[in-house]
Amino acid sequence: MISIRKSMRPAGIAGAILSIVVTVSAGEPRQNREPASPTVQAWVGARIIDGSGKPAIENATLVIRNGRIEAVGRRVKIPAAAERIDATGKTIIPGLISAHGHLNDAAQFGVYLRDGITTILSLGGNKEFALRQQSEKAPPGTAPHLYVAGLIQDSTAIPGAVAVTTPEEARKSVDELIRNKPDMVKVRVDDFLGVRAKMSPDVYRAVIDEAHKKGFRTAAHIVLLEDAKGVLRAGVDYIAHSVRDREVDQEFIRLMKKRHAFYSPTLTRELAVFGYSETPSFFRDPFFLKEADPAEMAKMEDPKRQEAMRNDPAASWYKEHMPIAMRNLKILSDSGIVIAAGTDSGGGPGRFQGYFEHLELEYETKAGLTPMQALVSATSGAAKALNISRQVGTLEKGKWADFLVLSGNPLDDIRNTRTIESVWIGGVRVPAKKQ
Q1: Deepest of 204, 221, 370, 413, by most Cβ within 10 A of its Cβ?
Q2: How many Cβ atoms are within 10 Å of 140's Cβ, its own excluded?
């Protein structure tokens, strides 16, 4: 199974709210991806973007045998028994990975999958362990590879979190959490712009230390640069949101590199906080509309809600600081920090699962990343952050056959990740939405 906690490389996560997540072990996907009968497919003539960051391979062939990649490249010997599929003019990319989302219901499996999100790290909630079990038992092609954090270690017992206010409580809480073998242990260091108490350094240090002692990696929800530095000094592995209050400095970059930490920008999380002061343009995007919940859309279009957002000081703060978050993404990417695409989708109102993962890539390019860099953040970069890159994240021999077939080339326009013709996970085609 793919598990993300065995590797104890230091790593760090910072996000809009400071949460620490500990990851479990890396191996194979938990779900049974083996097809019912032996199959061999050869996708011929495609443009293949393998997720590594290397240039696209034109007129390439991808051979899939029994759910895994057997060969990929321009000079590939096609097995005699293979089903040949003409992919001329198509682009094939790895299945996308959301390194920060939230699953709350098994019905959301299909939403993510049909939008091409084949692997998810669900970073906090009280239903995640049950959902992980459901995903493991799901028929092939119907559930993403799912990794979970369970209850967030927080200063307040808000939904999806447990309150820990002393180092002793923190250690006890972590010990209780890891009985369920979370794939990460997450801590939140955030006062929500001054409206509640923030977890103190001695408490989050205890969370991180206890998780690491028991073999689990950690992730952190943060907003402020100083809090991000604090969790990195404490040893956090993953910064799960952008630093938003001010530009990152060389000390932060040195701490990230020292910890071998990963960084998830979650720019669309910010967008959901301030962006519904009016009806967003993406509400007219056909790709969005095919999966969007009309009831959730109606809430976001309610004139009273939009007016309240226009007058909300917190929404204004996040809107004003969005450019800082975007600059920080570019600075860190240029500095060699591994970026792991994440959205916080499902973590609050208007954070549309599946679609936000694609919108996140668009915002990454608006921040200055190239389309290739954005794709890497949602494939091999995210796989590295989850410590599952031996099995997914790139199209390479021996890895699971998780891939998307696109009609457009995302290197020309990152929005072409939305031109999905088919989604495959473990060599099994994801079924279309039931009408």
Answers
A1: 221
A2: 18
Q: How many CB atoms lie within 10 A of CB 434?
A: 5
> What are the backbone angles phi and psi of residue 394, rounded to the nearest 5°?
-140, 160
The H-or-E segment that residue 174 falls in is helix 167-177
pTM of the model: 0.93
Sign (positive or negative) of CA dihedral 29, 339, 149, 167: positive
The total of other beta-carbon atoms located within 10 Å of residue 275's CB is 19
Helix count and strand count (H, E) for the chain: 14, 18
**Residues counted in the chain:** 435
Count of alpha carbons within 13 angstroms of residue 4, beta-carbon side: 32
- What is the rounded (10 degree) CA torsion for 287, 56, 147, 254? -120
Q: What CA–CA distances, in Å, run from 201 to 8, 143, 194, 227?
A: 22, 38, 17, 9
Question: Measured between alpha carbons, how far is 99 from 388 in angstroms, rounded to an integer?
Answer: 11
The model's pLDDT over 339-380, given as tens digits with 9 standing for 90+, comes to 999 999 999 999 999 999 999 999 999 999 999 999 999 999
Question: Which residues have C-beta within 8 Å of that of residue 54, sequence separation ≥ 6?
Answer: none
DSSP 3-state percent helix, strand, coil across the chain (nearest 5): 35, 20, 45
What 3-state class would DSSP assign to 220?
A: strand
Torsion-angle region of 150 (φ positive above 0: left; ψ -120 to 50: alpha; else: beta)? left
Phi and psi (nearest 5°) for 92? -110, 130
**Across the 435 residues of the chain, what is the mean pLDDT of every consecutive 10-residue run?**
42 39 44 60 98 98 97 96 97 99 97 98 97 97 98 95 98 98 98 96 98 98 98 98 98 98 98 97 98 97 98 97 98 98 97 98 98 99 98 98 98 98 98 88
